[in-house]
Amino acid sequence: MSKVKKKRKLTVLGRFVIILSIGVLFGASLGFYYRLTNDNVKKDDVKEQKKEEEVVSKKEEMDASLVMVGDALIHSTVYDDAYTGDGYDFKPMLKEIKPLIQDYDLKYYNQETILGGTELGLSNYPRFNSPYEVGDAFIDAGFNLVSLATNHTMDKGEQGVINSLNYWNSKDGVYTAGSYLSFEDRDEVIIKEVNGITYSFFSYTTWTNGLETPSGKEYLNNVYSPEKAKADILKVRDEVDVVIVAMHWGTEYSTSVSATQQEIANYLSSLGVDIIIGSHPHVVEPIAFIGKTMVIYSLGNFISDQEGVERLTGLMASIDIHKTVENGVSTMELRNPKAELLYTHSTYGKKRNFVVYPYTSLNDEILPLYRDYYETYKNIVLSLDSSIEMPSLE
HEC states along the chain? Predict the structure, then answer.
């Protein structure tokens, strides 16, 4: 009996051990499963958190640069100098400027005189007409933004404008504004992009020299009015990063800003224009900021044969456009405003060998007393905003 009882006791003990082992194993399994599941949940949480952090911290930055020069005022002495015997070549006149602007994305100038071509007869002041080869030289130098609304746009009438626009419309990569072949062309919404930055460009003139456009064809020369500018700008303001406006305004040969210029500049700034580029005075005027709007009141002449150093001195201005996109929100900032003075030189007394030089490349042989002139015009440019960077003459 004792052996039987002992055997039964062992059997009960064995069962207990087995049950206990199963319980321990089950508990361990539950613990392992819990740890495994919890680790996976934690890993998933970490992944989700990283994704959220990536979304929050995602930030893109884009940059574009703009350089601007003034009027191409092509007097007969200038195109006579460019004559080759079987055509015209203005490229040598820009040889000193071309390398200076190559690294800019956008390159602006004002075509003061109409490019009506030789078939309409080339002409001088007061009713200008210039060869197409003027445009060829500027395109060769890299210019791709061209203002066409001036007080000389109608110098050769409607046919002059048609010839000019047929020329420009045949050129790829050039964005013109201010003169059109129809109301449909004038009212077309044009949005361009460079380096991920979108922009629109408009051009207006406040002067016509009494040469009005034919009734019903006001699109030929874009005459400024507050209503017209507002309608144009509001079409694109929420669609682009940058709005650029060229204004033909001000008082000829005055280095001071007129009340009308200030009024228009303030109004355009209130509409959200980012950059205002002024021409018409034929001399340099100040650069200023109205809020975030850069205003160049007058770039002066880029190339011409007007009399006097002040009319042969122009301005090359530049600005960097910086765009930041963070959390789907875009912000735009203008940075590094710079300016440099330019001078149109020709052989004294002969009106030959026209070349545009930066003042930093001048010497007393090219322009006697050039340092004094530089300080005079530099002070004018900086008179409203001394933070604009300008080079010093060595």
Answer: CHHHHHHHHHHHHHHHHHHHHHHHHHHHHHHHHHHHHHHHHHHHHHHHHHHHHHHHHCEEEEEEEEEEEEEECCCHHHHHHHECCCCECCHHHHCCCHHHHCCCCEEEEECCCCCCCHHHCCECCCCCECCCHHHHHHHHHCCCEEECCCCCCCCCHHHHHHHHHHHHHCCCCCEEECCCCCHHHHHCCCCEEECCEEEEEEEEECCCCCCCCCCCCHHHCCECCHHHHHHHHHHHCCCCCEEEEEEECCCCCCCCCCHHHHHHHHHHHHCCCCEEEEECCCCECCEEEECCEEEECCEEEEECCCCCHHHHEEEEEEEEEEEEEECCEEEEEEEEEEEEEEEEEEECCCCEEEEEEEHHHCCCCCCCCHHHHHHHHHHHHCCCCCCCECCCCC
